[in-house]
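Quick question, first post here. What does this chain look like in 3D?
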Amino acid sequence: MTAGTTWTTGIGPRCWTRLISAGMVITAFWWAATAPGVPRFNVVIITLDTTRADRLSPYGFMDVPMPALDRLAREGVVFDRATSVAPLTLPAHTSLFTGLSAGARRP
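> Answer (accepted):
Ran it through. Tokens below.
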């Protein structure tokens, strides 16, 4: 067993965070798709973890071809200024999909 893994599963804490984040995203999309009487919108939210904007072609980086990302940026919306409520993935995504601030709890 390596350092930072749990004895029962062998999965490290970073992996658990990513699994929980993915589960939250899937749950949010499932809930939105199955809720009765809720209007449907054609929205795709793409988040990239630990990616610098200056290494993406829509922001001027041309060393690596990114045709799919270029097309998506050309046909969609690219934000030049975006901030996060938290420097960590899990609280940032939780806030993004719930509308609550990073430390808020539901009543």
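The mean pLDDT is 77.
Helices lie at 13-34, 67-75, 89-98.
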